[in-house]
Specification:
- The longest helix has 24 residues.
- It contains 20 helices and 25 strands.
- The strands form eight sheets. The chain has a five-stranded mixed sheet with strand order 9-15-14-11-10, with helices on both faces. Strands 16, 17, 18 and 21 form a four-stranded antiparallel sheet that branches.
- It is globular and about 75 Å long.
- The protein folds into three domains: 345 residues, Glycoside hydrolase, family 3, N-terminal domain (TIM Barrel); 206 residues, Rossmann fold (3-Layer(aba) Sandwich); 108 residues, Immunoglobulins (Immunoglobulin-like), CATH 2.60.40.
- The chain is an alpha/beta fold.
- Helix 5 packs parallel to helix 6, helix 5 packs antiparallel against helix 14 and helix 14 crosses helix 18.
Length: 685
Amino acid sequence: MALCGVLAAQSFPYQDASLPAEQRAEDLLGRLTLEQKASLMMNASPAIPEFGIREYNWWNEALHGAARAGLATVFPQAIGMASSWDEELLEQVFDIASTEQRIKFIQYRKNPQGSPQYHGLTVWTPNINIFRDPRWGRGQETYGEDPYLTSRMGYAVVKGLQGPDDQPYDKLHACLKHYAVHSGPEGIRHQFDAKDISWRDLAETYLYAFGEIISRIDVQEVMCAYNRFEGDPCCGSDQLLIQFLRGKFGYKGLVVSDCGAIDDFWREGRHGTYLGEPTTAVARAVRTGTDLECGSSYRHLLDAVKEGKLSEADIDVSVRRLLLARFRLGEMDPDESVSWNRIDEALLACDSHRTKALQMARESLVLLQNKGGILPLRKDIKVAVLGPNAADSVAMWGNYNGFPVRTVTALEGITAKVGAGNVTSPDAADVIIYVGGITPRMEGEQMRNSPEGFDRGDRTTIELPRAQRAEVDSLRKAGKRIVFVNFSGSAMGLLPETENCEAILQAWYPGEAGGTAIADVLFGDCNPSGRLPVTFYRSDDDLPAFEDYDMAGHTYRYFKGTPLFYFGHGLSYSTFKYGRARVRGGELVVRVRNRGKMAGDEVVQVYMSKREDTDGPQMALRAFRRVHIPAGKSVLVRIPLDDNFFATYDEASGELRATPGHFTLHYGHSADPATLRQRNIRRRS
């Protein structure tokens, strides 16, 4: 019988859209057999026609736009969007991503051809792992190395994806991943044990963004990671999933495994904590709270119940959450009754979405170096556009991407800006624009290929590929002025390039409109405003061992050396002058003036350190504001100084708490101590 026929013939509480989703889920749960319940706990959930339950695939991606399902707007890679430090714009980007993913869902429901995978309403985004080491290939998917910045940007992503709270249905469901203590190496993630992690590093770094986002918004999914934590696979960790996630953080939503992560419990050559015992493995996963498996191990659920390792009540806990999620999305109701399903399909990859992709691409670009003010370039000069990424459209997309209507490469963007007649050979040229770096075909998630300098998606060196370094050096020796545009999803060791090039622009993987944005910045139609969400180290010698998860020596908070470019760094065509900050009415108040001739955006950054906290970070980001300042004008920036601002690790409680002490507030436009101004505060309570 067709779905509409089933619904018309029966009238049960779970079919009544006027009832709360919780009540509907409970009613339907009581009508399902054990076999039906178990089937719903699998990523590719089958239809159960007698109850109007349709086939549903939980696996969907929206890392920087609706992904892997054909046509979509492709925004800059996540690490690039982190460089915008623009929470409002990021929320707008993911509102667009959720609109386009809803359209994918609508289109598949109307014409269900092929696989339902990547056409659903539950997207496994955002990746809020801490980018502790630039060699990690998946670091490009994150929002950088700082827990506070990650929590703010991650919150904006979730808010944009899930939609407003006052609607009868959720627009999409977001998923915080990968929980927890995960940031490479990729090649050993199915065997790696993140052990001996200090309570401080857990509280301050690895769990911080998860806890902060969960406390601020009703995020609906969390994905548990591949690795072990203190001996237990994350998807079977009582400490991570029960004590921290459900207990301490108060998380109410569902937990999904990373794909194949439950297999790692029992298959030889992986974690092997329950070697050869799949029923024990799935029982452990379910009883610690992994509700949904991406993989095939949960086919052993019924055997686990038969063997007494699981009860039907254990199964019910997970299925209740899964049904609730589907009711909240409107996925269990007639498609036409859900307002989100009436979104105009013409919005998919439309011009207005493309305009937003260009705006984000512009804000993501970070001007690292500009010797002698060579930039912006005049539009009447002769330029040669060289380098392996100059005309590579695929390199623009990053990983976990959709497919745009059109991609503007760097070469196309520059040619459109200055005219084909001004793009010439290196010999006639006034300036060489060298578009180099690496690509998402080299760095990424557990990749099979390992070219020189890479190992299964991770990097074995942060240095620029040797052939590019030699070519840039040769151009410099020929007397050429060079503007280097670097593509990468992570920090690069560019020390020789800082000496051989006049200017360096960090482009990340800038999305479908990246070439236009690059040209806009290089030729002065856009004032660069991106700021680094990661530290750019001088060389491999600055890096601790890749497998070392102790935060000592990692990121700007604990790195003792002098980096090539500091966290938060980014140049502008304007000069911003900071006044002396005052503390009044529970706020830090500082005036910032644009002393340049061009309007621009400044990212005001405020860091905190505590004199008594001798084992803590040198300083830690506690607030930021992105502000637009017209040429010659100033703005007054106000930063609330609440308990969260002053929270530091408290040994006695193992928590982040605001305790008395002597604090220094560091404010300015990067984490470079030489450029920051300071304000000292003594806090007595």
